[in-house]
Amino acid sequence: AVSHVHFGGGTPNILGAGDFRAVMEHLHAAFRFGPQTETAVEIDPRVLSHDMAEAMAAGGVTRVSIGVQDLNERVQRAINRAQPFTVVRRAVDLLRAVGIDRINLDLMYGLPLQTVDHVLRTVDRTAELEAQRIALFGYAHVPWMKSHQRLLDGLPRADAQGRFDQAAAAALRLVCNGYRRVGLDHFALPDDSLCQALDAGRLRRNFQGYTTDTANVLLGLGASAIGELPGGYFQNAPDTGTYRRRIAAGQLATVKGIPIDADDHRRRAVIERLMCDMTVDLDRFGGTASFTAELARLHDMAADGLVRVDGAVVTVPEDARPLMRAVAAVFDAYLPAPGTVPQARHSQAV
Question: Which of 99, 131, 189, 323 has a Cα at 20 to 30 A from 144?
């Protein structure tokens, strides 16, 4: 049976209510859904209608993620996303009225013109909504990948220390509001399934972030969607024209794939456990002999307090939580070797 359905990759609620119902009907006809299936949808609260909320409820949607980012008017104007708090509250109330009560809110730090005070005010207002989960993402300024971000080049943004301060202040305020930290950038109420999975050692991390889904097959549907099989990853055609033509011709829309071997599986598992549990026992994944070079790099990082290495056990201290991605990256065989000058491809670690 299907364990999890996720509508993401932008703003799924630009679909009309009728279109959404049709998509869900096709999915239910093609796959077996059970009472434990979680269906989650990302939405833009500015365009959520009552008809769409009812269509989602009728289609079995159990969780909705709402993009908030920041509630300061100047910041919103800078990023071209005018969205008063009243709009967010209306969306939450509308969803709960139709029976969808598992609400996620997505916040951001490091945005143009954003300050620590802006971040804290946003956290305080969104905490009033009592969402089950809150994600706190760092704004990734990658104009070489997203050309529209060049319009923001002239606006002031926090430097690395400023981003760290914003993230740390927001995290502390969320904890003070009753949320538990989950991994790198998620927060959840103590009775949420994400916290239960964390306590049981069953927390997972995939393309959508932290999840309770334990399936080892992820089918990507739609243009540019990425899927995962035990043997590798695959991606559909990124442009909608090619995707539509292939589907209409009865063909798979897959345009690229990457096989993964036993070493990839092992490294992926190590990285996932570090990102989820902040600790990993390398003896479960081939032992220290399989990671000699990585352990040497970790010992250098340990001198800066970023990691502790006790035999085969690697642990990220709580104070270094915001930098756990840098620790986990040591085990990524596909990142540039230390000392080389990498091509600009990735956003900042914090």
Answer: 323
CATH architecture of 274-329: Orthogonal Bundle (1.10)
Q: With 70 as the cut, is the pLDDT of residue 152 above it?
A: no
Length of the chain: 350
Q: Is the pLDDT of residue 225 over 80?
A: yes
For the chain, residues classed under CATH 1.10.10.920 are 274-329
**pTM of model > 0.85:** yes
Q: What share of residues in the chain are helix, strand, coil (percent, to 5)?
A: 40, 20, 35
- Of residues 58, 57, 59, the one with CA closest to residue 95: 57
The tokens of 330 are what?
């040591």
Q: What is the pLDDT of residues 312-339, one digit of tens each?
A: 999 999 999 999 999 999 999 999 866 6
Distance, in Å, from the CA atom of 279 to the CA atom of 266, rounded to the nearest integer, reads: 15
Element (H, E) at 171: helix 160-176
Domain covering 2-211 in this structure, CATH number: 3.20.20.70
Distances, alpha carbon 170 to alpha carbons 127, 136, 349, in Å: 11, 8, 17
According to DSSP, the residues that pair with 310 across neighbouring strands are 313
